[in-house]
């Protein structure tokens, strides 16, 4: 169940990949949209399969509306030089529900700890930039049960407000409508003015095209 205190957060808009070359080493950065660490594990497995000859496949991910879970892995690079800087690249942009994989083909020249940190952080940052940014706002379902004769009037009133109720007909009409958290009070007031009672349904998040963060 989403935390009701979290009203919005940012993630990436799409999966994306980039490639950098540093002193003959290839760094392939991949940013992916994920909803769980288990889902991210599957993306990592696919990248390992796609790059069987790579020296390292380093990873970092953050998931949950509040960034509740995270993971990073150096995959054989010196401790703290790959996964941690990649994770920091995600956290610095305040993103979540995102994973980053950086595949390294070793070019024969050692980069040193500082060079590795810059290379992995740079590949992660570039992949996140290529993936774009998408904003998500909290929603709450409202559940309405109405006489069939009243359903059309109430549905129209909600649609005038830009909402998109789902209507199911049986002995009565059942309406389910998702409302952004910042509009919830005004929509409830409108329903009360129309003499319509409601119950609360599930919490969730809706993705919007234009970021507000």
Automatic annotation (TrEMBL):
Q: Where is the signal peptide?
A: none
One Pfam family from the UniProt entry? Impact_N
Limits of the Impact N-terminal domain:
24-128
Gene3D superfamilies associated with the record: Impact, N-terminal domain
Per the record, what is one GO cellular component?
A: cytoplasm
Q: Which biological process terms from the Gene Ontology are attached to this UniProt entry?
A: regulation of translational initiation
Q: Which PANTHER family match?
A: IMPACT FAMILY MEMBER YIGZ (PTHR16301:SF20), IMPACT-RELATED (PTHR16301)
Q: Which family does it belong to?
A: Belongs to the IMPACT family.
Give the protein name, as stated in the record.
Protein co-occurring with transport systems (COG1739)
